[in-house]
Write a structure and sequence with these properties.
By secondary structure, the chain is of the alpha/beta class. It contains ten helices and five strands; from the N terminus they run βαβαβαααβαααβαα. β2, α2 and β3 form a beta-alpha-beta unit. It is globular.
Length: 194
């Protein structure tokens, strides 16, 4: 059975090569918007998140991935029959890898000293939420946020034949909470100063 990776990135450096590596390892790719378009243009078979959820992007892209079928697929404890039954009942499926990098709040909002009404458009909601969900459920899902970890993930995947040990899973999860806490702190600081 194919594993599934959800890929939605602002910074698209290296994402085509990484996605090709995942497909070579029998992953199905789910994606959104610009990421999906780039992967398709590069000849990579991609399914739209909206195909899974039955809903397109709304509110100028503010809501794309915030849906029970997405978060159920990320948060389902594979060893909990009730969780797996819930996935079936909502006609969803497991998501095994979440590849997300965040809207560049510091580079765009802080460094350009944007007004609050413009700055808030660079506050990522779905990205950190998916990453945190994957990190919480790291026994079942691997979250990848750092572009520098693309090669590491592939090496780890090959080394462990897809069966990542607990310690390695925990390393990926811990890094997510470090990244999201720093991200939230920058937003806190900026809004506090304004």
């Amino acid at each position: 059975m194919k594993k599934r990776a959800l890929i939605s990135v602002w910074n698209k450096d290296g994402i085509v090569e990484f996605s090709k590596s995942l497909v070579e390892r029998n992953f199905e790719i789910l994606s959104t918007g610009g990421t999906k378009a780039l992967l398709e243009k590069s000849g990579i078979e991609v399914k739209s998140v909206s195909d899974l959820t039955g809903f397109g992007s709304i509110m100028d892209g503010r809501v794309k991935t915030l849906h029970p079928k997405v978060f159920g697929g990320i948060l389902a404890d594979r060893n909990n029959k009730s969780h797996m039954d819930d996935l079936i009942s909502i006609d969803s499926g497991k998501i095994d890898v979440v590849v997300v990098n965040l809207y560049p709040f510091v580079n765009e909002a802080v460094n350009n000293n944007l007004s609050i009404d413009k700055a808030i458009e660079f506050i990522d909601i779905g990205g950190p939420s998916m990453l945190r969900a994957a990190a919480k459920n790291h026994n079942s899902v691997i979250p990848v946020c750092d572009i520098g970890d693309y090669d590491k993930f592939i090496k780890d995947y090959d080394k462990y034949k897809g069966d990542f040990p607990e310690g390695v899973r925990k390393t990926y999860a811990t890094k997510i909470f470090q990244i999201t806490s720093k991200y939230d702190y920058e937003i806190f600081k900026y809004l506090g100063e304004k």
